[in-house]
Amino acid sequence: xxxxxxxxxxxxxxxxxxxxxxxxxxxxxxxxxxxxxxxxxxxxxxxxxxxxxxxxxxxxxxxxxxxxxxxxxxxxxxxxxxxxxxxxxxxxxxxxxxxxxxxxxxxxxxxxxxxxxxxxxxxxxxx
Length: 127
Known about the structure:
Blueprint: H1 10-19, H2 27-40, H3 48-54, E1 55-58, H4 60-66, H5 68-81, H6 98-109, E2 114-117, E3 122-125
Antiparallel strand pairs: 1-3, 2-3
Helix pairs in contact: 1-2, 4-5, 5-6
């Protein structure tokens, strides 16, 4: 006999993650997962542990630190947009501009599926 739980909202999904002691994501990630699974168009079996292995959630500036090529793109953009040719290289403790957020979003979306993106959080399928 199998039990089937219908998950319709981000809060329902968050509750399922809590049941596995895996409630470690921002609400936008749960919302994005609901949208992602709905886009597949067929019923899915929930695998909380599997999702935890696949998902990467972090601040966008931490994503930049994780990928040297992305950090180079940010620094190139800073150099290109500086008025006097001087710029402050990317450091992990600096916030990103809206343009730099867009560079991060484009870089990650070209390589994998973004689940959630805003100025404080990026969640994507690990690659």
